[in-house]
User: What shape does this take?
Amino acid sequence: MPGMKTNEREGTRAVLRYCRMSAYKVRAVLDLIRGQDVARAADILRICERQAADVVGKVLASAVANAENNDQLDPEELYVSACFADEGMTIKRWRPRARGRATRIRKRTSHITIIVSRLSEDRLRRLRARQAADASSRRARRVAGGRRAAAEQAVARGRRTRRQAPDAAETAAEATAAAEDEAPEVQAPAEMADATQAVQAEETAAAEDAAPEEQALDEEQAAAEEQATAAEHAPAETPDTTQAGRPEPGTEKKGE
Assistant: This one.
């Protein structure tokens, strides 16, 4: 009994005709997404390095859009039920070769067909459970990351606080020393006034004690000045030439 024909497959399809690529190259990419859900198939095509992956990705997006807009299906509940590439017409060209010969060039084409259908209830149940598990794991990782970041911030804050504690202590000590330095400056005027009064009292007492001595010295100095003045103004004495220069009789030296 023959199998199901291509045009009898259930689902929503998208067809790209006369793709300028050989069916052999396209089939290698279609084998990667056959039976996969739409989201996973799109991810596979996104990271695939083959040139045919871009073309197949566009056909898959067209099939999903047809299912969503024409058949009112949820794109998250679709999967690739069938995909195949048929050979199209071959474009013939000629290449000149040596000794006047020519070689045929065959430019292959293909028809790409992708059919998407709704997942069965069992697969939908498993898919939703997996999505819920992934969401919960992502949430748990996000919460754990937030807690880890908060813990790291707390540790960094504690280190910063411990690092700043000596600075705060030094600042407080400097403030205390500055206050102590300012206090004597405030009390300095009164102390200076008391010291000035004490010095003045000592100077007054010393002056009183030295007054009699200074008076006596002044009197002696005045007397000495008077004597000097009297000596300067006294008449000069004339020497007595009569008898003062003569020797007494009997005292003359012999032989003179």
In short: Helices lie at 23-33, 38-47, 52-70, 121-233. The domain at 9-119 is CATH 3.90.470.10 (Ribosomal Protein L22; Chain A). The first strand starts at residue 12 and ends at 19.
